[in-house]
Design goal:
The chain is mainly α and about 375 residues long. The protein has helices at about 5-35, 40-65, 75-85, 90-105, 120-160, 165-190, 200-225, 230-250, 260-275, 285-310, 315-345, 360, 365-370. Helices cover about 75% and strands about 0% of the residues.
Length: about 375
């Protein structure tokens, strides 16, 4: 069992700071667009923020309710009010700081866990609560940060006006994507049994694989949006339907209730628009090959259309730069993908007995500490 270290605690504090700054930047950018009379962009950015906040609060409260089943209803009422006012994530960060501080700084001096608890209970508790936060950050990344990045890049490509406000939003989006992807994999390695530590080199390879493939795809979608917003919307809806259908076919068992399970599958469908998502922990060599082959074909198709049709929509110099960045990030992203899966990817995520469908949704708090929600929630 891996330990929650002082370095993990420092990253946790950094994650809180970035989360708060990200909220401020979102409202700052939205206010800037509103003051400039660009009301549609301002409303769109706020909609992304509101949608992601609503969905993450729903999942967060549902997890609290499942974990605290049988406890005082008074506590759940306060938790419900906190989530109702969109503050649930701060409750989780408070628990993370509390347990993380105990695990990283106080456990040795206080003699470790109590005699009634398992030997590594405090470590497991700290890792578990941080894991939940990182799962919610993955939701937020693809419900808010990635779409906002697409909007900001599209605005730059369409209007060609550059200002500090837009650059700040783009940098925060890239920063948010980067931290959520790496932190997720760190939590994955810590939460699942018999997994090697996620060292610096694998972190960098994984980061560049995700970041470059997502960047290439966002640039491609931005280009097709410049040609036709309707075509872009149709493409995104088609991709979501395909991802949602694939998720239904996988018969996921992530949530206890059917309503929450369908909401989860809806979110997964959105995530699949931007990056590959393994939701059952099975071997996915064929699926991931088909996924990125499809992205490559669509990307090249979009560039081909721009080369021979409506090239006047975007300046030739801008098209050349965007095309080079799109192809370069795609090629490099695929290279990092191959390197990661060949040399750094775990051969198996969990023991066979821990991967059964009954693990998730039928265990109580004790079972959750032992296995965790990651058994049926795996990003690759």
């Amino acid at each position: 069992m891996m330990k929650f270290t002082k370095q993990n605690f420092i990253f946790l504090v950094g994650g809180i700071i970035i989360y708060v700054v990200d909220i401020g930047v979102d409202f700052w950018v939205a206010s800037k667009y509103f003051c400039q009379g660009q009301y549609s962009w301002s409303i769109l950015i706020l909609c992304f923020r509101g949608l992601s906040s609503l969905i993450t609060q729903i999942f967060s409260y549902e997890w609290f309710k499942n974990d605290w089943e049988g406890t005082d209803t008074w506590k759940l009422k306060w938790i419900f009010l906190a989530h109702l006012f969109q503050c649930g994530i701060f409750i989780r960060y408070w628990f993370a700081l509390k347990y993380g501080c105990q695990a990283a700084f106080k456990q040795n001096s206080s003699g470790g866990a109590s005699e009634r608890d398992p030997p590594n209970f405090i470590q497991k508790q700290a890792i578990d609560v941080v894991t939940d936060i990182n799962m919610l950050r993955v939701f937020k990344t693809f419900l808010e940060t990635t779409p906002q990045l697409f909007v900001q890049i599209y605005i730059l490509m369409e209007h060609g006006k550059y200002n500090f406000c837009q650059y700040a939003a783009i940098m925060m989006s890239f920063c948010g994507i980067s931290f959520s992807m790496v932190d997720y994999q760190i939590s994955l390695r810590k939460s699942l049994p018999d997994k090697d530590e996620f060292r610096v080199l694998p972190k960098l390879v994984y980061l560049f694989y995700k970041l470059l493939t997502i960047t290439s795809w966002i640039l491609s979608i931005s280009l097709i949006t410049l040609l036709s917003i309707r075509s872009s919307v149709i493409l995104l809806i088609f991709l979501w339907i395909s991802g949602f259908t694939w998720t239904l076919k996988q018969c996921t068992t992530f949530c206890k209730s059917k309503k929450m399970e369908y909401l989860y599958r809806t979110v997964v469908g959105i995530i699949l628009i931007f990056t590959f998502f393994n939701i059952k922990g099975r071997k996915t060599k064929v699926c991931i090959s088909i996924y990125y082959a499809t992205h490559t074909i669509v990307t090249l198709g979009i560039l081909f259309v721009y080369m021979f049709w409506k090239h006047s929509v975007i300046k030739e110099i801008h098209y050349t730069i965007v095309s080079i960045l799109t192809i370069l990030s795609l090629v490099l992203g695929i290279i990092f993908l191959v390197v990661y899966y060949k040399h750094f990817h775990p051969t198996a995520y969990c023991r066979p007995q821990a991967c059964s469908d009954e693990v998730d949704g039928e265990t109580g708090q004790k079972g959750r500490v032992e296995t965790g929600r990651f058994q049926n929630f795996i990003v690759q």
